[in-house]
Amino acid sequence: VEELPHPHDLDLERALLGIVLLKPDSLATLSALIAAEDFFRLAHQRLWQVYVSLAAADVGITLYAVRDALAAAHGADEMSMAELATLDEGLPRQFDVVYGAEQLRDLADRRRLIRICRTALHDVAGAATAQGAAESVIAEARTVLGSRSSGIPLSDAVDEVLDQMDTPDTSYPTGLPALDRWGCGLRPGEL
């Protein structure tokens, strides 16, 4: 199986982390939308955890407070002061934190789905039935993504496709009686 790249955007991660240093009150909005594990880079996950812990302790999110908390939690080499100080470089004047958080979460959800699919590839061979394997993958995707995904639930989409496969559309006679009896005549769009 070919190794797929892990979808991520380090510039977006840096922008979201940088905006919190510039505008600490944005953490409340962001923390409702994303979590530390949504960041791809481990150092960014740890920095997010420090932001959240500082806010929970009612300590101001300043460059020095963040540096000291990072050093205490993960060692002095986790992120340099220079790296922390440049997190806000290149931020657009009008940065939509909600949109940025949604994009970060979407990338994280894609990585989670890739992990599910990799696991499913190995599990399908040992499954009792194809339907059982499909239901297992859908249940795992639902568990991992939870209510974070939007749109039609995956299980409903799969059920609709299976129903369409089981219930043939109206077919037009082909002139071959055996084929027409099986309901496999020509269908709209196949003429």
Please tell me about this protein's structure.
It is built from 9 helices and no strands. It has helices at residues 10-22, 26-31, 42-56, 63-74, 81-85, 97-124, 130-145, 154-166, 177-181.
What's a concise summary of this model?
Helix content is 59%, strand content 0%. The chain has 191 residues and is an all-alpha fold. The longest helix has 28 residues, at 97-124.
Topology record:
Blueprint (H helix, E strand, L loop, with lengths): L9 H13 L3 H6 L10 H15 L6 H12 L6 H5 L11 H28 L5 H16 L8 H13 L10 H5 L10
Helix pairs in contact: 1-3, 1-6, 3-4, 6-7
Mean pLDDT across the residues is 81
| Through-space gap between termini | 38 Å
- Using the alpha-carbon principal axes, give the shape: elongated
Q: What percentage of amino acids are in beta strands?
A: under 5%
**Helix amount, in percent?**
55-70%
Largest sheet: none
H and E string? HHHHHHHHH
Q: Tell me the total number of β-strands.
A: 0
Radius of gyration: 25 Å
Helix-strand makeup class = mainly alpha
Put simply, the count of helices is 9
The parts where pLDDT drops under 50 for at least 5 residues are: none
